[in-house]
Amino acid sequence: MARPMPGPGRARSKWAARTAALASLAVSFGIVPRPAPAALIRDNLYDVRALDAREAWAVGNFGAIYHTTDGGQTWQKRESGTKSPLFGVDFAGPEDGWAVGKSALILHTADGGATWTRQANPISSQKPLFKVKALDARTAWTVGDWGAVAVTHDGGATWEDRSLADDVVLYDISFPDARHGFVAGEYGTLLVTDDGGTT
């Protein structure tokens, strides 16, 4: 015999209880949720990069790029020039940043996000890029699907293909300094370099 579906009152009670529990947990840890502007809620956002306690960037579906300079109280939508999803964003400082996304898309700004320019790169357009790490205004790394790895040492004027032979999906990349880097991907993939990505 099939179990009866809970009535609307029960479903609401469960959601209310979960919401109350989450709110209590958030308060216990000092996390105070702030509602975002209505325009922001309609976009799926995939990555966020905070430059400091007040300034941050977020990217997402349909080329969405959002920027806050007041700690998230307000967000301004920036023109990206694309409708492709953007999956990763990073800034080397207040002026120089990159965003990456579907079809090996790489966007760059050198004016604090006022304008974004598409950068040519050798990665196949079949490969989405998921994460970008900016080390400084000239050096950045990006990783993505099918083992995609690329690096620039000239602010994105040229990108070098360092893709893996394996078709593994690479989701994240981090460099604490110019020589040491880490990449994480599917099936427990963890890659390490201690020579600036030469090996």
Structure explained in plain terms:
Strand 11 and strand 12 (about 160) form a beta hairpin. The radius of gyration is 20 Å and the shape is globular. It contains two helices and 15 strands. It is mainly β. The strands form four sheets. Strands 1-2-3-4 form a four-stranded antiparallel β-sheet, with no helix packed on it. It has a four-stranded antiparallel β-sheet with strand order 5-6-7-8, with no helix packed on it. It has two domains: about 1-35, no CATH class; about 35-195, 7 Propeller (Methylamine Dehydrogenase, Chain H).
Average the pLDDT over all residues and give the rounded result.
85
Oligomer: single chain
Summed up, the helix count is: 2
Helix content bin: 10-25%
Kindly provide the radius of gyration, computed on alpha-carbon positions and rounded to a whole number of angstroms. 20 Å
Low-confidence stretches: 1-22
Features of the shown structure:
about 200 residues, mainly beta, Methylamine Dehydrogenase, Chain H, 2 domains, four-stranded antiparallel β-sheet, 15 strands, about 15% helix, globular, disordered N terminus
